[in-house]
Amino acid sequence: LFMGRPGADALDLHFARDANCSDLADSSNYSRTLVDRVQTTGEALVITGTEEGAALGSQSVVLHGLRSILVAPLQLEGNVLGVIYLDSRLAKGIFNEDDVDILVAIANHVAVSMETARAAQLEVTVQSERRQRALAEDLREALADVTSCLDPREVLQHMLVTAGRAVAHDAAVIVLINDETARIVASIGALDQATQQAREVFNVDDAGLRELLAATGPVVVGDTRSGATLRIEPLRWARSWTALPLRTRDDTVGLLLLASRTAGAHDQAQAQIAAAFSAQGFVAYENAKLFATVQQLASTDALTGVDNRRRFFELAERELAAARRHGHELAAVMLDIDFFKRVNDTYGHAGGDEVLRIVSRRLSDTLRAEDLLGRYGGEEFVVLLRDTGSGALEVAERLRQVVASAPIAFGDGEVNVTISIGVSVLEAHDRDIESLLNRADHALYQAKDDGRNRVRTAFAA
Predict the structure, then answer these.
(1) Which candidate in 137, 379, 414, 427 is catalytic?
(2) Nearest in space to 258 (alpha carbons), one of 161, 356, 122, 167
(3) Tell me: the pLDDT tens digits for 103-159?
(4) 215-249 confidence digits (pLDDT tens)
(5) 286 among known catalytic residues
């Protein structure tokens, strides 16, 4: 059998066998001239003797004394795909014209079968390429989803969704590990009600996570009746599950668990795809955490942990715009630690720093979550009270009392600390947040002039 190669003009010997269907060790005893002739003409021919072969210019027929040759093209829609070549030395004329018709019919059937097989193989290739393209597109979309988000918690939720595209599941959770303990930090799907309370810390060994954390790749359990069960309370119902390791550059720090109520719902191929999604997603999570840390450092006062002056003004301008848009009340509170220089002179800067930390903590604990607290500079703090007008005086007085309620201890000593406070309420003529704060600042200086450790209010002129 001779077959063509893409881009080649001549046919190549594909394989050769004898009458017993054994592969021929020496497959060179054929007439290249006759093969080329049938390839060119597309017509079958029969050689019934050495003389006829010589007349057709076949030197091998004469050289090897071949007695009878039969050649037919593998032809489909006018295209010659290959050539079938038979020869016999048993007797002159063993092949005749009737054999040509039989061989041509066989050759046509072979050509159709080969084309059918080729088309089927092409279809498989096309389907495979489509699946690969679809997978690549899914991965691209998944990466776009997770990398477009800078909130670490939202990235974790995106990870669960994208990994779930590859693996059938009823529920999915992400477990992050810290030393010997673990915590569920994100979840989706049909979880037990216990999941709502399951974010408390649990032991890695008690949850059966040790072997999963040591695995180098996805772990797939097709049926939990085999003995491998998830001992995490919200997923104990799972009949089959997949565990995907979440790794940093140095270590495995967590697991993405996909659980199904159906046995045999998962396989390794699906798990590998899900692992690709989760690995890329976890890189985005680490980047989002880094970004959040940088943002916090850029917006937080390093000593007290409250908003720094730049961040406070940024948020305060938004609150001012919202208050004007919706007609809400807004109040500003400026406060200053009384005689703070004495603290530094007496106890050193370490003592002064401790006073600033404790005062800011007492202020934070007293204010509502929606109120803004920032360090204005030195020993001065600023507060913005949402939806608060005349009630700002009461809040300011409560802040003053809380700070003065107990001495602040550090080292081998303690100091009584008080604060002076100025309050202003948003008026129609306030052009910006500075205008509101300036009036509170004037009231603060009035409190200092009146003897400190008191609250004063600035009224519009």
Answers:
(1) 379
(2) 167
(3) 888 988 888 888 888 778 777 767 766 766 666 666 666 666 666 777 888 888 888
(4) 888 998 887 666 667 788 778 888 889 999 998 87
(5) no
